[in-house]
Structure formats: structure tokens, C-alpha cells
Amino acid sequence: MLEVLVLGALAVAAASLDAALAGGPGPFREAARLLAMERRVTPRADRALTRIGAIALPVAAALAALVVPFGGHAALGGRVGVVWFNAMEVVAWGAVWLVGWGANSAYALVGGYRFVAQGLAYELPHMFALMTAAVAAHSLDLRVIGAAQGGLWFGVWMPVAFAVYLLSALAMAFWGPFGAPLGADIAGGAALELPGPDRLVFLAGRYGLLAVASAVAVPLFLGGGDGPLLPPWLWSAVKASAVLALLVWAGRRPVLRMDRFVQAAWIVLIPAVLLQMLVVAIVVVD
Length: 286
Fold this sequence. Notes:
It is globular, with a radius of gyration of 19 Å. The longest helix has 32 residues. It contains eleven helices and no strands. It has 286 residues and is mainly alpha-helical.
């Protein structure tokens, strides 16, 4: 379970960096504020569904962390790590939608459906990016994919897939340009009616998704634990931290309009990553 603890620490670091960039209170001070907030419930709200959704988000992040290798070792050493990671994203979809639906609030419901629409737009490019790395390594095991890169990282010779993966990582955590499900134009969206403690759990899950997506980028595109001098597990942590810092910084970008993102995903991202996968398949077969 060391991987889950490391990624939990990265999530706290992401929250700290985000607070520093925004000039707001640190994560522990914000957590204390949320815990002290009085609980409130909208009329006819389904409290059970709302709470299940809030809890399911960090649970999905923790379960996804089980297949993340640090130095060639993963807590859950399955041969289908890519599929498991992708499946946990579906749990996150359901979690955000349940939070929006259960609140019995129009703005929260709009936020939940926005995430479903966003997921339908980013998921296909995301899956093709994952498949591109898997095809190159002839495996769905993240450990094997990381070890297959040798001296040339996949991120170098399949840059389109890497870029699409980073964009989809932001969308998966509804972060930065893809923060429309929690948009200010709908008064905070899916999380609008969450009381303090539930909101804290929900936001922790969001940072957890961001940390896990950053860590998975390392075996997929950055050579896993490969590197000089330092032990492999430390190289994995350093690379994951660098990707996470980049994603947190991207959180300062303006939020994209949902219709424009959907259009760009289907017209630009999917053809681009499919072409990248075709090139990789041809190179691997040859």
C-alpha cells in the first residue's frame, strides 16, 4: 500500500501548490475550515447518493493507485493495469454525477451532466493514448510498458499521444481548463450543495485523481523508474512530481466552453491520436 501513501502525499503537495499559486489558504487550513462548517441539506435531497458520490471519488483514486508502479513494483501486480486504471475513471464519472444528482439542485445537476458530457468527449482520445503505449510495449501491464522504453521514452517518439494523455488527465480530474463541472457560471456546479466535510472528501478525491494521473504518465510515457544515480522508485516519484506540478500550473488557465471542447475532441484529438497509434503500430510491426 506504499503506492497509495506516496500518491496521497503527492495529492497534498498538489493542493499546497495550487493554494500557493492562487494566493489562498493552505490545504490544512482549508480542511479545518470545511470541517467546521455547518451541515446543510437542500429540500428532498438524496443524502445517501450524495455521500456515496463524494466518498467514491477518493476511493476511485486510491484503487487506481494500486496499479501504479514505483520502481517496477506495484501494490496490485495485475497484467491489465491499463484497463484497471481506465475502469477507475468510470467510477469517478459515476461519483461526480451522483453528487450532482443527489443534491436535488438545478445547478448541481447541470454540473454532474457537464462531467458526463466532458467524459464522453475526452474518454476516446484518452483510451487511444493509453492503447498507443500498450501497443508499443505489447502489454497492458504498466510495469512492462515502463521497462519496454529503454533509452527512448515513449513521450519522445509518440508526442501526440503524450499530449492527449496530459489533456485527458486534466479532464479526468475536471481541473483547470476542464473545470466546467464546477464552473462559476453555475455557482459551483456539482459540488454546490455539498456540506463542509463531504466537500472536503470530494475535493480530496479530485486532487487524488490528479496525482494518480500524473503518476501513471511516468510508466506510460516517461520511462518508468529509468534514470541515472537515483534508485528507480525515487525516479518514478520525481517524474510524477514534475508532471503533477505541470498539471497544477495548468489549473490557472481559463475554463473552456464545453461545446468547443467536445468539438475539438472529436474533430482534432481523436484523428490525431489515431494517426499516432497507426504510426506506432507500423513501427512496432516492422
